[in-house]
Amino acid sequence: MCIGLSIVLPGGRIRPPRHDDRRTRMRIGILGTGGMATALGGAWTTAGHDVLIGGRDQERAERTAALVGAAGHGSLTDAARHGEAVLVAVPATQAPHLVDHLAADLAGRTVVDCTNPITPTGEGLMLAVDGATSVARQLAATAPDAHVVKAFNLCHVSIWTLRPPTFEDVPLAVPYCADHPAAATVTETLISSIGCTPAACGGLARAAYLEATAALAIGLWWTGGQPRAAFPSPGEVPHP
To answer: In a 10 Å sphere around its CB, with 0-12 CB exposed, 13-18 middle and 19+ buried, how is residue 88 labelled?
Structure first.
């Protein structure tokens, strides 16, 4: 699923990825060995970044690193210490405890939360957290010296395997929420280096809206709907 947002400038022009960001090589640690770790790790490795996969199970970490390509592998602590940026790619229910355990190692780093705290109910997908908060805010509370960002949570894992993720000749926009200016800059590099367009959506207080958007969009997708159709480009709107 991808809701297919795009950045449209006045006159209907599309803002392309920032090519200067694409040339910036970064160290990225990834906490987790599942689908998102593999897909985003592969995208960043292809873009030339130095990626290290960290997991509890070293065999799984090694297998994921092999799928990613040039990435190294190690423990969760190794991944937390490796990166200027650290991706949290574990189930949302596990993320706060994991980040709490690694708080000292994550201090001063950009910690990107791509989790979705959603659960199926009789009324459809619902958020598994209080609507007044978000997993991202929980991570920020457990690791107060880290710079937590919410990003990469609105698309299905398959989208991140595309090189690049482009739809109808428009680069995919990746919404993110961040409080720290340096972390926002790091996140924009992570996004633009894989051929996507950064879409700043405010501070971390608004991360709950990204998580709620994911619950709504994924729920539509599961029922055969097309969430992307609900977000037409303003440049496509006819004017009298």
So the answer is: buried
